[in-house]
Design brief:
This protein is an alpha+beta fold and about 110 residues long. It has one domain: Alpha-Beta Plaits (2-Layer Sandwich). Helix content is about 20%, strand content about 35%. The chain has a 4-stranded antiparallel beta sheet, covered by helices on one side. Helix 1 packs antiparallel against helix 2. It is elongated, with a radius of gyration of 17 Å.
């Protein structure tokens, strides 16, 4: 089992969610986050005053998936979230040692 965490642009969330549903991902967790990468934010003009936006709004989605669909999930997120512009985001893959469904007590892949 793997935990796929992806930080993407907010307007791409619905497209990514639909793409993941099509390949059989049954549940995701979504969090609104702020951050910056290489671009280090940007400057904006508001009522004639220039100010720096250090942290850009992003969406972090997490999905626990079985090992056999990890590559499909990564490819699906990469294709769907890609705009070709700076700040498209990142995907992180971590191992899950154990998963337990609280309601039924199921463990492992059946808990996903």
């Amino acid at each position: 089992m793997k935990l796929i965490s992806a930080v993407i642009k907010p307007f791409k969330l619905d497209d990514v969610r639909e793409a993941l549903s099509e390949i059989g991902v049954q549940g995701i967790t979504v969090t609104e986050v702020k951050g910056f990468g290489r671009q280090k934010g940007h400057t904006e003009l508001y009522r004639g005053a220039e100010y720096v936006v250090d942290f850009l709004p992003k969406v972090k989605l997490e999905a626990a998936v079985s090992d056999d669909i990890v590559d499909q999930v990564i490819e699906s997120i990469s294709k769907t979230a890609n705009t070709g512009k700076i700040g498209d985001g990142k995907i992180f893959v971590t191992s899950i040692e154990q998963a337990i469904r609280i309601r039924t007590g199921e463990t492992g892949d059946s808990a996903l």
